Amino acid sequence: MTSGPRGKAKRKKGLASFAEARLGFAIGDVHGRADLLDQMLLRIAHDVAEANSQNAIVIFMGDYVDRGPDSAEVIAHLLSQQPPGIEWRFLKGNHEQSMLNFLDGPTMNRGWLAHGGLETLVSYGVSPLPSIGSSAEAIVQARDQLKQNMPASHLAFLQSLERFVIVGDYLFVHAGVDTSLPIERQRDDDLFWVRGKFLNDTRAFSHVVVHGHTPVTTPYRDHRRICVDTGAYATGRLCAARFFGDSVTFLIEERVKMASPSGGD
């Protein structure tokens, strides 16, 4: 490593490496597709067993909720199905932040309903469903019912999600980074929401950035970033990146397409 501007370590192309002798996976945006998540976790568990790995790690890239049909089931699975001997780490995505904002201030954050929030309300048994144009009273009633129906462990899960995870030469975040700032100064707006400013930047960061948030047809990789969001809720394709040493490969689990893409956010 050589020293870069602002005291950041500057990586050379092609030299990124995961933690020594550790097997790792990064699972892209699930968005309420519990069926695909189950398939992917079974495949990863089999892979870990085949590799006889004793310290594997799985990093979930955020956006567990919204758009797909089973947000509540996804969180329930993540809270109850962790296999022994595999570390699970959970990043926060913009959809979890939007859901928390709705829980704290429903009328000011009613826009969440139009970006997948209605599907999440359905998964928690909220009825009748409001719309983005509903009265303030109806919006608050939906929020109150969501809080009542949601297990306390689900809320605690949402509140405990991590902003980023670092393993070896890789930085795992939901959306991306501001390449002009070191890791410790990154803003939530960039970590959870950034798109063009990060995606179109050609500067390498101190770490290879592994992210989701912006759907791609097939997983993307270059010397500065890896994208593992394949739009599972719309395409029926869930992606995970597999890391071992300096090797990166991709796993895809696929089922019948659920809905038409709506741009993803």
Name its key features.
265 residues, 5-stranded mixed sheet, 9 helices, 31% helix, Purple Acid Phosphatase, chain A, domain 2
In terms of per-residue confidence, which ranges show pLDDT below 50 for 5 or more consecutive residues? 1-10, 259-263
> Which term fits the overall shape?
globular
Q: Kindly state the mean pLDDT as a whole number?
A: 92
Q: What share of the residues does DSSP label as strand, in percent?
A: 15-25%
Please, what is the CATH homologous superfamily of the domain at 20-99 and 163-254?
Metallo-dependent phosphatases
Name the structural class: alpha/beta
CATH architectural type of the domain at 20-99 and 163-254: 4-Layer Sandwich
Distance between the termini: 34 Å
Under the CATH scheme, which class of the domain at 20-99 and 163-254? Alpha Beta
Report on this structure.
It is a single chain. The model is unreliable at 1-10 and 259-263 (pLDDT under 50). The protein contains 9 helices and 12 strands. With 265 residues, the chain is of the alpha/beta class. The relative contact order is 0.19. Strand 1 (2-3) and strand 2 form a beta hairpin. The two termini are 34 Å apart. It has helices at 34-51, 71-80, 94-104, 117-123, 136-149, 152-159, 188-193, 196-199, 232-235; strands at residues 2-3, 9-10, 23-27, 56-60, 86-90, 165-167, 170-172, 208-211, 220-221, 225-227, 237-244, 247-254. It has a 5-stranded mixed sheet. The chain has a domain at 20-99 and 163-254: Purple Acid Phosphatase, chain A, domain 2.
